[in-house]
Amino acid sequence: SQTIHQWPATLVQPVGSPLSLECTVEGTSNPNLYWYRQAAGRGLQLLFYSVGIGQISSEVPQNLSASRPQDRQFILSSKKLLLSDSGFYLCAWSNLGGANTEAFFGQGTRLTVV
Amino acid sequence: TQLLEQSPQFLSIQEGENLTVYCNSSSVFSSLQWYRQEPGEGPVLLVTVVTGGEVKKLKRLTFQFGDARKDSSLHITAAQPGDTGLYLCAGFFAGSARQLTFGSGTQLTVLP
User: Fold this and answer.
1) Which chain A residue lies closest to B93 (C-alpha atoms)?
2) Contact A44 B6 (CB under 8 A)
3) Is the N or the C terminus of chain A less surrounded, counting Cβ atoms within 10 Å?
């Protein structure tokens, strides 16, 4: 069966520090991978998605970047965090798209920039 | 940017009442999904609808996909406190088969 791992679960970082959140998927190959950010009690804002190694699409201009060094690894990074980067970050994977596509989510990372 | 409008944003009702949540867009979906999310966790899929006019039932939850595949609704009958949570619609827009876009969410609270 497929599983998705996201870490860390919580993170407190000072303004100006770097960020690296990692997400890995097991049990599938060539998944679509996604990074979302969620404000409290609100919907998910799509930040990045990837359809293959080294292929990253950015949805929102921001202080963040994403990389996909391996087929089932997706990394969210920042060189210098801003206060506004605080939030709940979710990684997700889906199969190749189409009528019955379903997204599976990691447990999320609660990032607080202080 | 394609948008999904979800309403209402907040809903607080008494146990036993019925409710409906709406999800609308000006663009056509190739498929639309409804998720439920608990605090501090990732969303979990409830249902996927694909065909215009499609109706799916999951116990007390009824999901409907609009004929034009631009809108959807979630109806809960006889709500229970266990139904409390954040309900999210999400869709793959036609022509963007790999980009999953989420609505703004409906925070439902069912009071005992």
Assistant:
1) A98
2) no
3) N
